[in-house]
Amino acid sequence: MPRCNWQLCGRSLALLSSVSLLAISSYMHRQPGREAPALAMPTEATSSVTDSAVTDRNGAIAPVLDSASITYQMHVFEHYTVHVAHIPISQGWAIVPAVSESLQPLPQFVQAEVGSTMQPVAAINAGFFDPQNQLTTSHIVVGGESVADPQDNERLMQNPDLTVHLPQILNRSEFRRYRCPTGDRYAIAQHLELAPPDCVLIDAVGAGPRILPDLALAAEAFLTVDEGGTMRDALGSSGRNARSAIALLPNGDVLLAMAAQQSEAPTQSGISLEEMATFLASLGAADALNLDGGSSAGLWIEGQAIYGRVNGAGDRIERPIKSVLLVVPAELEH
């Protein structure tokens, strides 16, 4: 299992694995109709874990790690469960994109970094792609260079139903990392938006729509109406589905959120985009971006992958994807 070199990183994450695994295990084995149980603290928990616990508005309880650590929490609602990783950027963490030439499962992106300078401790699925030709439909920038361009995808560019909407599609929102004189900054911006003065765009992953501060479904051509009055909702935005999102807190911290369907209600569970926006706002998020969802939705946290979509039998779906966002120690990333 890929792990951070704790002596080098200087993080108080030594107990993250045991805490995360407890929470994930309780979710994966929860019986239909039962509330998620309160999580028992590991007996060895001392200074790295506080004595308190967080209870959300639906009664789910998850342990809290101190402010220097990445926090994993699980929020159980009537129709969905949201898994959230809180990344304290000021404590020396970086979020970087990774893209694959061919589609691959979420854990393989993490495994690809084993032995490299980056040692991921968390990851979430990221941009959109065409499963038929395995080409991106989202812009991706890594290290200041464009590594995936939707304009290279002929199925997208030559789709007659989308021609009139291409200017909006090619200018959808993306999660960005800037390098500025005062340090790295994260932002959500449209693709054609310029970097702030004195800053340079280092990384970006397109997705969309932006869901906070406002839901930009129509502005980014996810929700369109043709000349005949037929509405097209590319994401089924008001329906229930597994979904992933990334959000920014006012202090610069980042939230990775993945809403999972319920195995006992595969066709009647999941979260809408509006519900995801409302949930992230309740955690204090000021800005948020929807990522690829449905069968692509997945969160990896310290050795365990959690998937959001379930099939008709209630089994979790592991779908190969095109890109991810990795959480790594900042000093190892440079």
Report the sheet with the most strands, covering strand number, pairing sense and barrel closure: 6 strands, antiparallel
**Discrete helix count:** 7
Structural class designation:
mainly beta
In helices, the fraction of residues equals: 10-25%
The whole-angstrom Rg is 19 Å
Shape, per Cα inertia axes: globular
The fraction of residues in strands falls at: 35-45%
List keywords for this structure.
mainly beta, 5-stranded antiparallel sheet, 22 strands, disordered N terminus
Report on this structure:
- The protein is mainly beta and 334 residues long.
- It has one domain.
- It is 13% helix and 35% strand.
- The strands form six sheets. It has a six-stranded antiparallel β-sheet with strand order 3-4-18-17-19-14. A five-stranded antiparallel β-sheet has the order 5-22-6-20-21.
- Residues 1-67 have low confidence and may be disordered.
In brief:
The protein has 334 residues and is mainly beta.
Topology readout:
Layout: H1 6-9, H2 16-28, E1 49-55, E2 61-65, E3 71-76, E4 81-87, E5 93-104, H3 106-111, E6 122-125, E7 129-130, E8 135-136, E9 140-142, E10 145-148, H4 154-157, H5 166-169, E11 173-180, E12 183-190, E13 200-206, E14 210-212, E15 223-225, E16 231-233, E17 243-248, E18 254-260, H6 273-282, E19 287-290, E20 298-301, E21 304-307, E22 321-329, H7 330-333
Antiparallel strand pairs: 1-2, 3-4, 4-18, 5-22, 6-20, 6-22, 7-8, 9-10, 9-13, 11-12, 11-13, 14-19, 15-16, 17-18, 17-19, 20-21
